[in-house]
Amino acid sequence: MRNISIIMAMKSEAESLLQSLQLRKVNRPFRSGIPFEVYEGNLGKAQLSLLVSGNDSDHHVDNVATVPAALMTYLAIEKFEPDLVINAGTAGGIAGRGCEIGNVYLSSGKFCFHDRRIPLPGFDQYGMGLYPSYDTSIIAKDLQLKTGTVSTGNSLDLLEKDMQIIEENRAIIKDMEAAAIAWVCRTLSVPMFAVKAITDLIDEDTPTATQFMKNLHQAATNLQVKMIEVLRYLQNHEG
Ligand code: SAH
């Protein structure tokens, strides 16, 4: 695992990591109009590329959620031919299953979607996704990180039906990109896992958006610290 692409949705999640890795910005990495920012560099023996989704040209906010994430992953794999993709970001967690604000999780099991409900034979399972995460159990044990199944949807808020599907899939982490990234990686046979810092607890009463804004800075700092540990670990171990 010496050529690693890191995919991140929000600039505010990526800033401290970019600083501590001292990556350099790549000018015009893709054709004109593609908003993604690309950074490159090294950490020990590892060659790193980090992509951030950039801003939407009409709405002037980060290009979060599944559509930009899938495109960004495809372009990263085409350009850098990584032997590992890591989706780093923030996420909601289930307090009742042990998640706490600021915890950093590695993905385990299978990435699923909780808002692709297609009640037709075969399509119901397709909708759910269920793409494998790279087995992070040894890394998690060595670095004393928690692991959990990640469920992805295109909304920050949560409908009752979404929660039901999250629970059916025994997921404990909720985000807006991971399963989309995992689909591209599975399709192109590139190992992939996620590193997610918890900004909000989805089974608590305070609205997600309020919790998210309050805890984003702390979560991004923890994410940066743990990402450096994960990257140092990977560049020292043969994949
Ligand atoms: N109001 C925020 C919007 C960010 S969208 C802002 O303008 O800063 C939320 C981002 O954080 C997504 O990239 C998603 O992957 C992640 N995220 C954090 N908590 C989440 C949750 N509870 N549900 C879904 N995604 C979450």
Report on this model:
By secondary structure, this protein is of the alpha/beta class. It has a single domain, classed as Nucleoside phosphorylase domain (Rossmann fold, 3-Layer(aba) Sandwich). The chain is about 35% helix and about 25% strand. It is built from seven helices and twelve strands. Strands 1, 2, 3, 4, 5, 6, 7, 8, 9, 10, 11 and 12 form a twelve-stranded mixed sheet that branches. α1 (about 10-20) packs parallel to α7 (about 210-235) and α2 runs parallel beside α6 (about 180-185). The model has no long low-confidence stretch (mean pLDDT about 95). S-adenosyl-L-homocysteine binds near residues 61, 177 and 202. S-adenosyl-L-homocysteine binds near residues 90, 175, 177 and 202.
Query: How many alpha or pi helices?
Result: 7
The number of distinct β-strands equals 12
List ligands, each type once: S-adenosyl-L-homocysteine
Helix content: 25-40%
User: How many domains comprise the coordinates?
Assistant: 1
CATH domain fold name: Rossmann fold
Q: What is the CA-atom radius of gyration, in angstroms?
A: 17 Å
The quaternary organization reads as: single chain
Provide the residue-averaged pLDDT: 97
The CATH architecture classification is: 3-Layer(aba) Sandwich
Content-based structural category: alpha/beta
The helix/strand order is: EHEEEHEEEHEHEEHEHEH
Q: Cα distance, first to last residue? A: 5 Å
Low-confidence stretches: none
- What is the name of the CATH superfamily? Nucleoside phosphorylase domain
What is the highest CATH level, the class?
Alpha Beta
Question: Per the principal axes of the C-alpha atoms, what is the gross shape?
Answer: globular
Q: Please state roughly what percent of the residues sit in beta strands, choosing from under 5%, 5-15%, 15-25%, 25-35%, 35-45% or over 45%.
A: 25-35%
Biggest beta sheet attributes = 12 strands, mixed
